[in-house]
Amino acid sequence: MIIARSREALREILDLMSGSIGFVPTMGALHIGHRSLIEAARRENDIVVVSIYVNPTQFLAGEDLSKYPRKEEADFKICELSGVDVLFYPESMYESDEVSIKAPDVRGYILEGASRPGHFDGMLTVVMKLLNGVRPTRAYFGKKDAQQLALISQMVRNFGMNVEIVPMDTMREGDGLALSSRNIYLDEVQRGEALKLSASLKEATKMVMQKNFGTQSIQEAMIEVLKPLDVEYVAIVNRQFEAISEVVLGDTIVLVAARVGTTRLIDNVWM
Ligand code: AMP
Prior knowledge:
This protein is an alpha/beta fold. It has two domains: 2-168, Rossmann fold (3-Layer(aba) Sandwich), CATH 3.40.50; 181-266, Pantoate--beta-alanine Ligase, Chain: A,domain 2. It is built from eight helices and nine strands. The strands form two sheets. Strands 1-4-3-2-5-6 form a six-stranded parallel beta sheet, sandwiched between helices. The longest helix has 22 residues, at 188-209. The protein is globular and about 55 Å long. The relative contact order is 0.13. Adenosine monophosphate binds next to α2 and β5.
């Protein structure tokens, strides 16, 4: 595995290689969710590039940028063992006073974008830079960050970018907790409370399987399951992220965001 620590070094390395490139952008503290993306990239491409970069522009003031988990040594090992060819590990991705991407006014500022205004501007900007730096054939993103995935797909479409965005299913612990780098903030008791997120989504799925398609009653039932967590939102939207009154199978995402202690967790299920 070759480690590139600057955009120039990355370009030099990739210019010497030929074949399709599968790219997995991450913020490190790699877990099995990340590995599932890397493994898909490995199966489907000649070259696998992973980036690890904790992007400051997608963190709001007061968020966990400075304490975001950094696990350089373990991450390098995971990448090496997963068959990554090139690890892009830049110190910084920005100069001062840059051109940047702005997320769409509605879709970029509801749900996650309402809780974290400006988050998606920073996320899209760094993803644009990463995609332009790597020039992958395919780029792999988790459905766990459903709104992020939708916005990246839209950016690729709106800017006519030449990359296939591959959505990947959410990987979970045996008890249902969605894997997240932020789970390491949870103590044992909080880890138990965090299960309410996936439990609320299971409740939603159960209701839909019983042909209970009304989104208001599903949301009410989810809020019951989530008690007493500090819930930021429970939402049921179509794939365009528009609120819907009835679940339509094949075009619905049920999302939840809640705080467990000071840790903000998100989860969702695609129906
Ligand atoms: P992050 O390091 O949190 O920026 O995540 C990097 C990529 O991994 C994103 O595309 C995430 O959606 C994806 N990801 C995060 N958690 C999971 C998970 N539990 N299962 C599958 N993919 C995930």
